[in-house]
Amino acid sequence: MTGFEFASATPYFAEFIAAVLYTATYLTFVNLLRYMRNWNSTSRLEILTTGLIAILTVAVVSLSAEGADLISLAISTGFIIALSFPVAAPAIAFRPANRAVEFLARHGDHAGLWLLGPALVAGLMVPNSKLQTMLAAAMVIELSWFLRQRWAGDRRQLYPLNDRDVAVLKSQANGDLGAFRRRHGIRELALTAEAVNWKGCGKSTPPCPFNLYVNQLGLNTAPCCRAHMRDICHYVAACLRDIGAVHWLEGGSLLGAVREDGALLAWEDDVDLSVLLDADMSWDRLSAGLVDRGARDGYHVDLFEKHGLIAISFDPPKPWPFRWERNRMRGEIRVDLAIYRPAVSHGEAVLERRSYKGEMPATESGGYGLAREIVLPTSTINFEGGEIASPRQPDTYLRVLYGDFREVEYTYVDAAAAETRRQAELDGEHHLDE
Ligand SMILES: [Zn+2]
Q1: Is the peptide bond before 11 cis (omega within 30 degrees of 0)?
Q2: Which of 129, 121, 44 is CA-nearest to residue 79?
Q3: CA-to-CA distance for 45 and 314, rounded, in angstroms?
Q4: At what angle do helices 44-62 and 70-92 cross, to 10 degrees?
Q5: Rg, the chain, Cα only
Q6: Which of 7, 63, 119, 135 sits CB 3.0–4.6 Å from 14 for a disulfide?
Q7: How confident is the prediction for the chain on average, in pLDDT?
Q8: From the CA of 168, how far away is ligand 1's center (Å)?
Q9: How many Å lie between the centroid of ligand 1 and the Cα of residue 356?
Q10: What residue spans define the domains of the chain?
């Protein structure tokens, strides 16, 4: 008995396989999106795996004992490709993206359902039960994603915006908050005649998509997100102390601690910590310690060993397969934990990382690094209401990363929004001085 004969002898067997393969294509694809969310290059092996499963899906749908069904082949291929855009858009929009991607990302909770009409037409016109099953499986997945996002979104709690947040918001909105809210689809903004509030994100809601709000529209980080960043920063630092890993506040977070008297930068989009791997601390021990604690305490942990990065996010870890589906969310509250290792570069003892950061100089081995004595032994610094480990010479560290770091720069904000925000910050200072 050949495979085709077996498949045709067992009722609905081929249909079942088509649905399973489509689901596998979908899951491996959403799992790939975690690289984009973390601004890392995507693993070639994983791209290849996803591609092969997709090809297998299309083959099962369009091949039978009678031969190839070219119409089913074209429809299933086109459908999988078309659906990949709304699924991937939120992850692509983690970096400033073009208008089409932003549009799809903004409607990412339901944009997959826009293919419901074409799926119905194709299912009715083409008498291929395997194609019909694949299309139905895809639409069930999209519907389930939409319903879960909508249901979770209802549980937001109101946070008042402070004077400075409102001043920045008003200047970016050119005075008309209602029109600004509508134009950019800012569902979190709750406007009444008396007050400007923010429908805040939490553990059980989708996150605020502040990649758009902060990096492109030039708003201050939302009060809910700031509170969660503070919590997760101290949580991860406590885990690292517990595990016995040498660590320190890094990048924009260190900049806030030094320049803004222990506060997050007003436009902060993540928390940066770094950790040292050496003879006393291995990757396996560190990552296992963080994964265990994350699972116990309700934080999602993603490991990128090749890139020297561990991303710890505020949203709770979900059971498989929903664990991978979280990559469809627009934003996230995250600690980026960068790995440093001791090395010698040009005859000097350095601490070295794989990924580029600020203006950190390149090392002999092709990484990036700075002199060991700038960092070790670590000191402590006040940050967001608690003491946290910092490099031994935080000012020197920041000069290596950012040059004249006392000068406020809005480097990653859209140019026009940056200029408006500069003005708003100045106005805000005058206002607070009064
Ligand atoms: Zn938020």
Answers
A1: no
A2: 121
A3: 28
A4: 150
A5: 25
A6: 7
A7: 90
A8: 17
A9: 28
A10: 3-153, 157-205+416-433, 223-409
Token pair 């649905």 in the structure block, residue: 19
Cα of 200 vs centre of ligand 1, distance in Å, is 5
- φ, ψ of residue 89 to 5 degrees: the values are -55, -45
Phi-psi region of 40 (alpha: psi -120 to 50; beta: other; left: phi over 0): beta
Whether omega before 321 lies within 30 degrees of 0, making that bond cis, reads yes
* Two tokens, residue 205: 């809601």
Within 13 A of 323's CA, how many CA atoms are on the CB side? 11
pLDDT digits (tens, 9 = 90+) for 285-318: 999 999 999 999 999 999 999 999 999 999 999 8
Please give the distance, rounded to the nearest whole angstrom, from the Cα atom of residue 221 to the centre of ligand 1: 8
For residue 136, report the distance from its CA to the centre of ligand 1, in Å.
34
Helix, coil or strand: residue 276: strand
Q: For 57-72, what is each residue's pLDDT tens digit? A: 999 999 988 888 999 9
- Total residue count of the chain as it appears in this document: 434
Nearest to 111 by CA among 378, 328, 326: 328
Q: What pLDDT does 432 receive? A: 44
Q: How far is the centre of ligand 1, averaged over its atoms, from the C-alpha of 332 (Å)?
A: 9
Give the C-alpha separation, 291 to 296, whole Å: 9
Cα 325 to Cα 31: distance, rounded to the nearest angstrom: 7
For residue 226, report the distance from its CA to the centre of ligand 1, in Å.
7
**127 CA distance to ligand 1 middle (Å):** 47
Among the four given CATH numbers 3.30.460, 3.20.170, 3.40.50, 2.60.120, the one describing domain 223-409: 3.30.460
> How many whole angstroms separate alpha carbon 132 and alpha carbon 19?
9
How does DSSP assign 29-74, residue by residue? HHHHHHHHHTT-PPPHHHHHHHHHHHHHHHHHHHEETTEE-HHHHH
Question: Which parts of the chain sit beneath pLDDT 50?
Answer: 432-434
